[in-house]
Amino acid sequence: MKIGIVQHRCKPDVASNIARIEAGIIEAAQQGAQLVVLQELHNSLYFCQTEDTSRFDLAEPIPGPSTERFGRLAKDLGVVIVTSLFERRAPGLYHNTAVVIESDGTIAGKYRKMHIPDDPAYYEKFYFTPGDLGFHPIKTSVGILGVQVCWDQWYPEGARLMALQGAQVLIYPTAIGYESSDTLEEQQRQREAWMTVQRGHAVANGLPVIAVNRTGHEPDPSGQTNGIQFWGSSFVAGPQGEILYQAPIDEEAVVVLDVDLLRSENVRRWWPFLRDRRIEEFGGLTQRFMD
């Protein structure tokens, strides 16, 4: 599979962001991409730095304007696109939703972010209701995609459930960065932990992982913090956790690379983790904590 990733800076103007995203998708398609993955909430600035009810105006229905626009582009270019949108499901009910658009322009499926953070500068619980679609991969013309969103990437259970249902690749649109008060050493530890845990999902499940993060600095509208410096570093890992590509920390990038999906079969033969799982002993995983 030829996979394209679009890592970019977001600006206040939504129309400008979408135009630049489209340019990135076109560039990736011209390089031969069959699948193009975008970053989390790519149409706008990361609005969750503050709790502001006016930000709900950024949300849209699915299907809606963005799925129609990206759908036309997917059809024109003959590519599958993984988008990340602020979904207005009903009055007062909103989700952080990834939508997979098929190469004929139709919606192949969607995934609503399951794990919702609530930390300084990441006040997502104010905006998003936790997903209710479960962890189910989406079938497309280029393969079966195990799509999750950002904070989900820290949880091995979601990756495993996707793998057990036949996902051929794990995909994470992401918006994560540095908190300015952290030391440089702490910032480095956080970024490396972010990469390491996802490479672990690749190893544990014998699947490639694609993580596409935004880059650039976005100010805090409230002025209470110094904003977020998103750390970029979008990457693709192979089924043994090997890094096939890693984007720069502070630069935009449009990159296309080949990922051999058949390699997963061989890796699973060498390392048969799915065979050796003691599923009869895993009941405790459904508990919050075991005292």
Shape category: globular
Q: What is the number of independent domains?
A: 1
CATH superfamily: Carbon-nitrogen hydrolase
**Computed CA radius of gyration, to the nearest angstrom:** 18 Å
CATH T-level fold name: Nitrilase/N-carbamoyl-D-aminoacid amidohydrolase
The sequence of SSEs as H and E is: EHEHEEEEEEEHEEHEEEEEEHH
Beta content: 25-35%
> For the largest beta sheet, what order do the strands appear in spatially?
5-4-3-2-1-17
Regions with little confidence, pLDDT below 50 for 5+ residues: none
Number of helical elements: 6
- The tally of beta strands, per DSSP, is 17
Structural class: alpha+beta
CATH class division:
Alpha Beta
Quick rundown:
By secondary structure, the chain is α+β, with helices and mostly antiparallel strands. It has helices at residues 14-30, 65-77, 156-164, 184-205, 263-270, 273-276, and strands at residues 2-7, 35-38, 80-90, 93-101, 107-112, 118-119, 122-123, 138-140, 143-147, 169-174, 177-179, 209-213, 215-218, 228-231, 235-237, 243-246, 253-258.
